[in-house]
Design brief:
heterodimer, A: mainly alpha, 4-stranded mixed beta sheet, 12 helices, globular, B: mainly alpha, 40% helix, 0% strand
Chain lengths: 306, 20
């Protein structure tokens, strides 16, 4: 009966994962391996193709148009113009590339639209967290703490299937941006993605599928060692159950992959350093880029994080 | 609570019943 409960939990989390995350690993790998035929992504590899990419995205019907709107984000910050979701939700958010602007503005604007997508992704992760049995019964302040500390780790894991050693899919898989192009951006923008590529290429060799990913993400959210938690016991209890479910899932789904569970536990530790470095880079950006505006939700998450 | 106003709102925002 216990194993049956753990399997039921795995199925529940997998369904929630499919419900809340718009682009999962399976379709992503199909795009990256060129199995989507006519729907191959547009490739951005230099400034010229970056501008063409905008045309491409504007001409093409956006998927997920009917996704839930982000009323809570916009309501919380009425008039917040950079929150741009729904049908016209593209890589570059609300602005357009004129071709006339100074070169150094490109990075900044691209960064702003990445922030918009990240804020939307935080909402997706929040909905997923709420679907974890027992999560919404936790102290509300602890739910906030778990999300604050867990959400960037979750986003990095969600980003991994979008990446290969040569680049990353963006804009719901419609665009492939090369790693070399990202490296060619001016400092410190060029330093932002490289650590994620290094992590993702290694993480992808573990070959988790979407059902494994769902459990792993739930484990990342439910960590009893996040700073400032008020009531650790129930969180640890929930995490223990999800960890057991993950361990069983891996045994069944990857019988030949030795030590996969232990390797994933190690990844949980590695992620913490990546997030710390990421937050420090954002703090550096805030100081050096006078025109930069940090999204209020991301600001909340990163303030006093590490 | 003020420090994490949006996160609180996202968590308390009642979505349609999860029909999983």
């Amino acid at each position: 009966p216990e194993a049956a409960d753990l399997r039921a939990l795995a199925r529940h989390l997998f369904r929630a994962y499919l419900k809340y995350f718009p682009l999962t690993k399976q379709p992503t790998r199909a795009i990256l391996s060129g199995k989507t035929g006519d729907n191959a992504p547009c490739v951005i590899h230099d400034m010229k193709s970056l501008m063409e990419g905008e045309q491409f995205i504007n001409c093409r019907q956006m998927p997920f148009q009917e996704q839930q709107q982000t009323s809570v984000l916009t309501a919380a910050h009425g008039g917040l113009t950079e929150v741009h979701m729904g049908s016209d939700y593209g890589v570059w958010g609300m602005t357009s590339i004129s071709g006339q602007e100074p070169q150094n503005a490109v990075e900044l604007r691209f960064f702003q639209s990445c922030q918009s997508r990240s804020a939307e992704a935080v909402r997706e992760v929040t909905e997923f967290a709420k679907s974890i049995p027992g999560f919404t019964d936790l102290d509300l302040n602890d739910q906030v703490t778990l999300l604050k500390y867990g959400v960037i780790e979750v986003l990095i894991i969600m980003m991994s299937p979008l990446m290969n050693k040569d680049g990353t899919l963006i804009s719901y898989g419609q665009i492939f941006m090369t790693r070399e192009f990202l490296k060619s951006l001016r400092k410190p923008f060029c330093q932002m993605m490289e650590p994620k590529f290094e992590f993702s290429v290694k993480f992808n060799t573990l070959e988790l599928d979407d059902s494994d990913m769902a459990l792993f993400l739930a484990c990342l959210i439910l960590r009893g060692d996040r700073p400032g938690l008020l009531n650790v016991k129930p969180i640890e209890k929930l995490q223990e159950t999800v960890l057991h479910s993950l361990e069983l899932q891996l045994k069944l789904n990857h019988p030949d992959s030795l030590q996969l569970f232990a390797k994933l536990l190690q990844k949980m530790t590695d992620l913490r350093q990546i997030v710390t470095d990421h937050v420090h880079l954002i703090q550096l950006l805030k100081k050096t880029e006078v025109d930069m505006c940090l999204h209020p939700l991301l600001q909340e998450i990163m303030k006093d994080l590490y | 609570k003020e420090k994490h106003k949006i996160l609180h709102q996202l968590l308390q925002n009642s979505t349609s019943p999860v029909d999983l």
